[in-house]
Amino acid sequence: MKPPHPSYEQLAALPAYAEQPVPMAFEDANGHLNVRHYTGIASEGLDESLVALGIPHNWPARGHACFSAEHHLTYLAEMRTGDMMSTRVRLLGRSERAAHALAYLLDESHQRLSFVMEEIFLHIDMETRRTAPWPEDVAAALDKRIAEDATLPWAPDVSGSLALR
Fold it and tell me: What SUPFAM superfamilies does the database record attribute to this sequence (predicted)?
């Protein structure tokens, strides 16, 4: 049985990334945040959360990158223009060349969970554009963060369709 989603309060205790109001340009014909932007904002928040682990935004200039391999997306509540949003991240695990994460998009205006993005992302050697083992310092930082996140008092609400290989 899939664990329930964590509560807004549980998620709000995590560091916030990609904090911003929903811009009018992101609204679709239904009057809410367009589907493509949920993923983009959650991805932006995940990227911001990785900076402290040694994965800066300019990592490709240093010969490394992270590429997304798989996603599982769950839409829970619409967000509208002007609603404040933030991304919260829980790292679940890593292998030699990949990592598994959950990125939660919170609707801060209504204090609710709006969207969950489960992702497998890969470490890429930009010279070969192939997967490569994580650099030792990044691997150690990922391991530390994964261990910290494993102590959270709520079960990760994984889809069951993604896994590290």
Answer: Thioesterase/thiol ester dehydrase-isomerase (SSF54637)
User: Which CATH number do you get for residue 87?
Assistant: 3.10.129.10
Domain count, the chain: 1
Cα gap 150→163, rounded to integer Å: 16
Domain that holds residue 97: 8-150
Cβ atoms < 10 Å from Cβ of 40: 13
Q: Report yes or no on 163 lying in a domain.
A: no
What is the C-alpha to C-alpha distance for residues 45 and 106, in angstroms, rounded to an integer?
A: 11
9 three-state secondary structure: helix
Residue 142 forms part of a structural domain: yes
| Mean pLDDT, residues 113-135 taken together | 98
Residues ≥6 apart with Cβ < 8 Å to 51: 57
Tokens of 109: 């205006």
Q: Is 157 contained in some domain?
A: no
**Structure tokens, 80:** 């509208």
pLDDT in tens, 65-118: 999 999 999 999 999 999 999 999 999 999 999 999 999 999 999 999 999 999
How do residues 22-58 score in pLDDT, each as one tens digit?
999 999 999 899 999 999 999 999 999 999 999 999 9
CB 88 within 8 A of CB 17: yes
Task: Give a yes or no: residue 165 inside a domain.
Answer: no
